[in-house]
Amino acid sequence: MTAIRIRELAKPSEFALAQRVAKAAWRLPDLEAPSVADLIAITHAGGLTAGAFSGSDLLGFVHGFPREVDRRRAQHSHLLAVRPDVQGLGLSKRLKLFQRRWCLDRGIGLVVWTYDPLLVKNARLNLVRLRARARRYLRDFYGPIGGIYADLPTDRFEVFWELESADVRRVAAGQPLPEPALESAEPFVLGRPRPGRRVSVEIPTGAPRLYRQDPAAARRARFALRRRAEKLMALGYEATALRLDGGRAFYFFER
Questions:
Q1: Half-sphere exposure of 35 toward its Cβ, with a 13 Å CA cutoff?
Q2: What is the pLDDT of residues 103-155, one digit of tens each?
Q3: Which of 161, 137, 114 is nearest to 234 (CA)?
């Protein structure tokens, strides 16, 4: 593989490659795959579509468009996909850091996106490696879309990435950041009064494989996290990290 370069997409043929990457990453049916025409039009209208290229080979891409959040200019990061055969090379983080620099160069200090909170790898990228924060829980956000999600409700965390925060600046500079110890968070129990400043909520570690191998267990996990996350976020908590402990995974929520 030649050196990997991240740059904005320029030609219709490159946007068509991005569609193929998305279909491969999420195993989406044709009707749910991102439209090449939409990718081009949104980019032309002020959005960003950037790809990680090895020569002319597109390995992954990030796509976002302008929005406003509480009267602040922001970008909604709609798509981030890396081809299955090159996952594990750190391309997702590199694409997000390119997006950060692109936004800052245009006076945009906030990027917002959604992700499936049962996907441990995504949670680690978003909350730990990028230091974004999940502040909202969205029920069945996309409706049924199939692919890796099968028939599971498409619940999502909405995360907020403050591009100039101290932690995000350190991430962008490649500086290591410590993770809080599991013992620093008390397990959250529904109905227990006055939860502490930092609480933990356990989730399974087998998604998305779990979605097809044990749909009933996946549904139970989805609804269990939904109840707890909605309660905590209503109390002013946000998800700040996901900690792995052996074969178990724990969200940290902080107020």
A1: 6
A2: 999 999 999 999 999 999 999 999 999 999 999 999 999 998 877 787 899 99
A3: 137
Q: Is the pTM of this model over 0.85?
A: yes
The tens digit of pLDDT for each residue in 48-60 reads: 999 999 999 999 9
Question: What is the Cα–Cα distance from 89 to 106, expressed in whole angstroms?
Answer: 28
Q: DSSP code of 2?
A: P
How crowded is residue 149: how many other Cβ atoms within 10 Å of its Cβ?
Answer: 23
207/242 Cα distance (integer angstroms): 14
Q: Do 162 and 169 contact (CB within 8 A), yes or no?
A: no
Write out the two tokens for 120. 């441990």
Average pLDDT score over the chain: 94
Task: Confirm if 13 and 28 have CB atoms less than 8 A apart.
Answer: no
Q: Would you say residue 46 has pLDDT above 80? A: yes
163 in the Ramachandran plot: left (φ > 0), alpha (ψ -120 to 50) or beta?
alpha
- Residue 30 scores a pLDDT above 70: no
3-state helix, strand, coil in the chain (%, to 5): 35, 30, 35
Q: Computed over its alpha carbons, how large is the radius of gyration of the chain?
A: 18
pLDDT band, very low/low/confident/very high, at 31 (cuts 50, 70, 90) = low
**Alpha carbon distance 250, 229 (integer Å):** 12
Phi/psi class of residue 123: alpha, beta or left (left: φ > 0; alpha: ψ in -120 to 50)?
alpha
